[in-house]
Each structure stands twice: as C-alpha cells, then as structure tokens.
Design goal:
This protein has about 120 residues and is mainly beta. It has no helices and eleven strands. The protein has strands spanning about 1-5, 10-15, 20-25, 35-40, 45-50, 60, 70-75, 80-85, 90-100, 110, 120-124. A hairpin with a 6-residue loop joins β5 and β6.
Amino acid sequence: QVQLVESGGRLVQAGDSLRLSCAASGRTFSNYALGWFRQAPGKERDFVAGITWNGGATFYADSVKGRFTVSRDNAKNAMYLQMNSLKPEDTALYSCAVKTRGTDYYRATNYDYWGQGTQVTVSS
C-alpha cells in the first residue's frame, strides 16, 4: 500500500499560477499511472489530469487544457500539477491517486490510495 500526500494548495488570485505536489511515502508508485482529481463543496469529484506510469502520455479535463500541466518524477516518487491562469471555478480540494484498474483515466473508480487533498482557493 502506498500513501500519498498532496501539498502546495493555497489562496491565490485569479490569473495566478500554482504548483501542486503529490508525494508518495513508503512504497514507490513508479510503476503506476496517476491522476489528479478535484472536488468543490457540494459537487462530485471530477477528473483533472492523469499521467501514464512513465510520463509518456498525459490526459486532461477539457476545463483545464492549455492551463494545467501534469508531470511526474519517478526517481523522487512525486507527481506535480502546474496550474496557470487560475480561475475562481478552479477552487476545490485537489487530491492525487493511484490508478489501479480499468483503462479510463477519467473515472475516479479506477483509482485507489487517495491522498488527503490540498485546498486551492482562487479569488476574483
């Protein structure tokens, strides 16, 4: 079992940039695909970005394409989400997770080992 810890979330202004980190403790996740999800209060958890086990391919929700970039550094057991041109609608608790089943990167049910989340709040 792997434990994931997200960090980097904070209150920012619209248009700002922010870089989130997801770090594994204990077991490495170097051989697993990973994903970022976000959940706003009263909303369902939504897919944000995903990345294959070796970083060879990435996947993004339409709402963040062109603004967010997901990357990983397997040597550091870390995944990152670079968020640019942040909008108030990006406000959410951002969580990382390990993709353990299925072929669809967009479905939260294909992931396990969720982190506790890091809060991103974007003000107008």
